[in-house]
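Sequence dictates fold. Next comes a concrete instance:
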Amino acid sequence: MALAGGLLLVSGCAGHGGIRQTFDKTLQAVGLKAAAPPPHSVPLRFQAGDNLNAGDGERGVSLVVRVYQLRERKRFEDAAFEVYLDEQRERDVLGDDLLGVTEFLLAPGQRHEVLEPLPADGRHVGVVSLFRAPAPTRWRLVFDAGKAAGEGVTIGLHACAMTTPGPALETVLATPPHSLSSSRCPPLRR
């Protein structure tokens, strides 16, 4: 009778993940397993200029923006612009560093705010803007998710480049990240 009651209790716990959770907590308590970090979110704010995606032209047009949830940033930062134009190639190049991606369309002058959820092992947030004629170093930015979780990240989107005042920025730029002074738009491909 006691055995049947014990099995019933164990099966009830197993149905709700209770045994696994208890086992994991026991392993953590004795130092055999590190506690998994909890999932977290990063507030993202996007502000599109009136000249959004205009390149060297005069008229702004809509822009596709992608937000990447990443384990590591190296492959993301090393990938060429063309990689991000093909979803399969993007997945192949980023490999297991890619945890997820969110895509949206921004119109000139539009604001967009989102609370980007990251899985527990998401350490970086990457942003790619698919400009028609991207400035060489300003179409992709990557942020430390831990540093960005509190205040969030604000990104300005312009004719061919992005700007940010965010202290969580990990991308190394030759000029201040909040300035467009050295960003020149290449000619539009016609």
